[in-house]
Amino acid sequence: MAAPHHPTPLPEPPPVSDAMARAHRRYWRFNLALIAVLMTIGFAVSFVMPLLAPRLGDMRFAGFHLPFYVGAQGAILVYVALVVVYIVLMQRADRALQAALDADETARPGRPR
Amino acid sequence: MRLAHRLIRSYVLYTLGFFAFVFVMWRIELKTGPGMWIGYVFLFVPIAVYAVIGLLSRTSDLVEYYVAGRRVPSFFNGMATAADWLSAASFIGLAGSLYASGYDGLAYLMGWTGGYCLVAFLLAPYVRKLARYTIADFLGTRFSSNLVRALAVLATILCSFVYLVAQIQGVGLIAMRFIGVDFAIGIFCGLAGILVCSFLGGMRAVTWTQVAQYIILISAMLIPVALIAHRDGIGWLPQFSYGHLMQRVGTLERTVRDAPAERDVRDEYRRRAAAWQAKLDALPQSYADEKARLAATLADLRRRNGPLRDIDSLERRLASFPRDAEAARIAWTQQRDDLLARAAPPVPMHEPFPAHAPDTDPDAARRIAMRNFLSLLLCLSLGTASLPHILTRYNTTTSVASARRSVGWTLFFVALFYLTVPVLAVLMKYEILAHLVGRPFDDLPRWVMQWRRIEPYLISVADVRGDGIVRWGDIRMQPDMVVLAAPEIAGLPYVVSGLVAAGALAAALSTADGLLLTISNVLSHDVYYHMVDPKASSQRRVTISKILLLGVALLASWVASLNAGNILFLVGAAFSLAASSLFPVLVLGVFWKRTTRLGAVAGMVAGLAVCVYYIVATYPFFTQLTGFEGRRWFGIEPISSGVFGVPAGFLAAIFVSLVDRRPDRYTIALVDYIRHP
Fold first, then answer.
1. Closest CB to B145 among A1, A7, A91
2. Among partner residues B130, B352, B670, which is closest to A53 by beta-carbon distance?
3. Tens digit of each residue's pLDDT (9 = 90 or more) over A11-70
4. Which residues in A lie closer than 8 A to residue B413 (C-beta atoms)?
5. How many Å lie between the alpha carbon of A110 and the closest alpha carbon of chain B?
6. Cβ–Cβ < 8 Å for B98, B237
7. Between vectors from CA B386 to CA B380 and to CA B389, what angle results, nearest 5°?
């Protein structure tokens, strides 16, 4: 197989300090945990609700049959909420990682930015 | 932020201008009465506007051409992706399938929105971080392999091309219905419309026309629904208050199910189906008999100098008569099944997983229906998350955080549309049940007369019971008509019909542009530049890309002009294909460092092979073509073949990766680089 070549060479990640490696690990673990939680909620709404639908057929919500409402409106609103939560929390995590990076750089002033 | 401000100002002006345009057209219609010219104006004025935007955004810069300079603000990229996403099928077909199949249709709604959660969590941020030009480029770089790249190119082309053909066909149909031109001419108008947006400016031009197209298509959905809902007394914002209307629809549906006259109509259909069954049982003798009988009637009519119209219609029937007994079996089985479907009692919209066939075990039928609902839902959401033309759009954002925000905006704009679609379906069902059923045949509404005259196969109302009153069972309406004819069914001005046509056209054109660009970009960037001529100058690469774009567009239009209806199924299957071939490697490549080059190859090949095998073995079109028919696994429909393809892809990728050598330090560092913003 021919070796692939990079038209714009990827920036090689610079060697990182222990503090930075820890910050990166924390960031990634938080990301994974957040994804797991949000996807569980999404999974419950998408796949468990239809399973229960035949049994919940008589329940009403604002004039809707509950299973139809969840499929047509509820699930979509939940998805929007999940994505919003993810965006907000990940932006906070981004900032924390950036703060760790800045702290790391001030701790070692000799390194070029 | 000057760019964002300038964009907001331009698009606000554009939106106001569009509303003013619709308003002026409405005033003119009030003065002069409706006419065909409204259709022309609503189809050609928007195309002219897109052409101007496309011309203004022309470019020959590489980064501008491939990824719009990576400086599209997340809000606008969200809007453009929503237009990219909402296709002719979403705009025209979805409300119809909810109208026809009720709860079952919700799988599309949930799958197509839920998929964006996966895009936000698992894909878009990482695709943007690596900042490549295409998805094949992303995979090729991650696994440092041109073989992975080639497989990704294959998968991209496979799922994008059929989808593209379907969009062009959609444009042809819209042009045919609204301005009455020939289908082939409609297609070439569509081709021109597609090329003016993408040819000169690539991704940059497509992005800015897609934003303009989204504004038109969302107005074309929200405005008619608000007008109809307001007239039916549930307010201007029916999205959250149509439950009460659904209750009224439910009551009417029960009446229709239990009324003796409706039962008579259904019994009549069952009798007709039984007649076909008798003919089927007597094959091949009945084939010869039937043909001889037709020929004899024709000869008799000719001898007696019968009415020319009857002779004409008989001649046509004889000409289209099945060529042999085997063809007759297929055609007649179709006839019988159609009649049997119409003989089944109507299912209430809100009821999940009804048992359709009365003769089999209803519990088993219900279980299979539920299984198919869930697997379709799964395939559609995984497919949404792996369609290349959506994922490449996130390459145009400014940063990882902006890509994430952009997915949020996409989901918001897509949700705005999908929250309205079921409202339209319910409104139309109410309209038909309350205002058409029970009317005497002498006094049919005007829209029925018009549509019946122009296109009888789209809407037909036949007095089956012979009592001169329209019954639910008498009405036969093609699901696509629910959106296209909605303004007329609700008695709105013809301008609203024009608006809907413009919206449908915008939906088809925007998706077609995104797909066309995706295909020509993988061909020019991944095949030409990475595999054929790595030393090509950037000027040359853009030129090659434009030539390829033209070629792909012409090829797709040619295929669309053949009008082979069977490809429409493949559009649904594109989701399964994309999910099976791309989803496992895309996710594993980021979330599991141990994934190796060979693992990726195995995963893509296995996923694609299982998915394609299942489709070819179970979908009637292919089984008739190849003569080979496999068994259905767990009763799953061929459209959801991704249910088997995705696990196969994951298993193969994981297993082969574990057997393979560990990835080297460079690859580990690369994955770390992708993971962190």
1. A1
2. B352
3. 555 666 788 888 888 899 999 999 999 999 999 888 888 888 777 767 777 667 778 888
4. none
5. 23
6. no
7. 110
Q: What is the pTM of this model?
A: 0.89
* Helix (H) / strand (E) containing B529: none
Could B239 and A76 be called an inter-chain contact, meaning their C-beta atoms sit closer than 8 Å?
no
Cis-peptide, bond into residue B479, ω within 30° of zero: no
d(C-alpha B484, C-alpha B304), whole Å: 45
B244 touching chain A per CB within 8 A: yes
Ranking B227-241, B303-317, B430-444 by mean pLDDT, the lowest is B303-317
For residue B292, count CB atoms less than 10 angstroms from its CB and return exposed for 0-12, middle for 13-18, buried for 19 or more. exposed
CA gap B113, B281 in Å, rounded: 46
- Both tokens of B480, joined, read 């696509």
Please state, as a whole number, how many other Cβ atoms lie within 10 Å of the Cβ of residue B479: 18
Share of chain B above pLDDT 90, in %: 32
Please state the domain extents for chain B: 257-370, 564-677
CB-based contact A63 B244, cutoff 8 Å: yes
CB B553 within 8 A of CB B195: yes
In tens, the pLDDT along B502-535 reads 999 999 999 999 999 999 999 998 888 888 888 8
CB contact under 8 A, B121 and A86: yes
Looking at beta carbons, which residues of chain B come within 8 Å of A104? none
The tokens describing B139, both together, are 């995979």
CA distance B577 to B383: 8
- How many residues are given for chain A? 113
B246 touches A at CB < 8 Å:
yes
Question: Distance between terminal CA atoms of chain B?
Answer: 21
Cβ-in-10-Å burial (0-12, 13-18, 19+) of A16 comes to: middle
Task: Using DSSP, state whether B13 is helix, strand or coil.
Answer: helix
> How many CB atoms are located within 10 Å of the residue B270 CB?
14
A83·B120 Cβ contact <8 A? yes
Residue B82 — very low, low, confident or very high, per pLDDT cuts 50/70/90? Answer: very high
Q: What angle do CA B553, B555, B556 make, to 5 degrees?
A: 65
Closest approach of chain B CAs to the CA of A94, in angstroms? Answer: 7
Instruction: Count chain A–chain B contacts defined by CB atoms under 8 A.
Output: 149
CB B585 within 8 A of CB B649: yes
Model confidence pLDDT, tens digit, residues B167-219: 888 888 888 777 777 888 888 888 888 888 788 888 999 999 999 999 999 99
